[in-house]
Structures are given as structure tokens and as C-alpha cells.
Specification:
alpha/beta, Rossmann fold, six-stranded parallel sheet
Length: about 150
């Protein structure tokens, strides 16, 4: 059991690090638009139960941010939270006017995002890659302030 408990602590800490880093960068999430790419707890599933992405989305909403999201399959079971997130049919539509984009699930399609198009759709330039799936040098070359977890 100690290993299982330790994994819950580590996972919780990783989620908090994402939020803390973004709050340090923008100082206040209130009034910001956050685009979440991925809501499922892992790629290739529609399951959002125990999803770290939803924990992040809920924190952003509770901090006063508006949240838009794209996930190719995710089904949301929490109707109250679902009503507070604007879902879109593609990542670029979800990112329109966003101050920041958070890649929260490792969908293969996110590995090949058109970063020029993504940047053009956004209002801001913050790209938080919570799954470490993008090339940081390329993202920075495209004009993003690129942040990732654990690096």
C-alpha cells in the first residue's frame, strides 16, 4: 500500500506544479482563457474518471479562468464541470483567443500540431506541455513561451 499511496502523492504534486507554474507566469488566472488539449485520463480512451486534465480544468475554472477544450474521445461524467468547459471539435478552434494552451493528454495528434496555426489562433503565447510530447526548440522557434513538466 505505501507504493500506491506514494503514487497518489506524486501525481497530485505533478498537477499542482502545472498550476503553480502557470500562476507564476501570469500572476493571476482570473479573466484568462485556458485551452486544454486533452481531457481523458490517458490517450486512446474516452474515460475521464480520475483524469488529471479535469483536475487542472476545475482549478482553472475555480480561479476565474474560462476554459475551452478539445479531446477527440473524452466523455465527461461530471455534468457541473462539463457545463463550465466549452468543448470544441478541433484543437485550433479550442485555442482561439486563448492566453495559454495546456497539453494535458498524450494524444498522438497533439504530437504533430501545426504550431504556426496554433500560435496564430491564440491571443497569448504560453504553451504548457504537461506530457512532454513536443520539441521544445521548435515550439520556442515558433514564438511560444514553452514550459514542460519535469524538465
Amino acid at each position: 500500500m505505501p507504493i500506491v499511496e506514494a503514487s497518489f502523492i506524486v501525481n497530485d504534486r505533478a498537477r499542482k506544479r502545472v498550476v503553480e507554474r502557470l500562476e507564476q507566469i501570469v500572476e493571476n488566472l482570473s479573466g484568462k482563457k485556458v485551452c486544454m488539449l486533452g481531457l481523458a485520463f490517458k490517450n486512446n480512451t474516452d474515460d475521464t474518471r480520475e483524469s488529471a486534465a479535469l483536475v487542472l480544468a476545475e482549478h482553472f475554472v475555480n480561479a476565474g479562468a474560462s476554459v475551452s477544450a478539445y479531446d477527440p474521445k473524452a466523455k465527461m461524467y461530471d455534468e457541473e464541470l462539463a457545463s463550465r468547459i466549452q468543448r470544441h471539435g478541433c484543437p485550433y478552434r479550442a485555442s482561439e483567443g486563448a492566453d495559454m494552451v495546456v497539453i494535458a493528454t498524450e494524444w498522438d495528434e497533439f504530437r504533430s500540431l501545426d504550431l504556426d496555426r496554433l500560435k496564430q489562433k491564440m491571443e497569448g503565447d504560453i504553451l504548457m506541455d504537461a506530457r512532454n510530447i513536443l520539441n521544445h526548440e521548435e515550439a520556442e522557434r515558433k514564438g511560444f513561451r514553452y514550459f514542460r513538466v519535469g524538465k
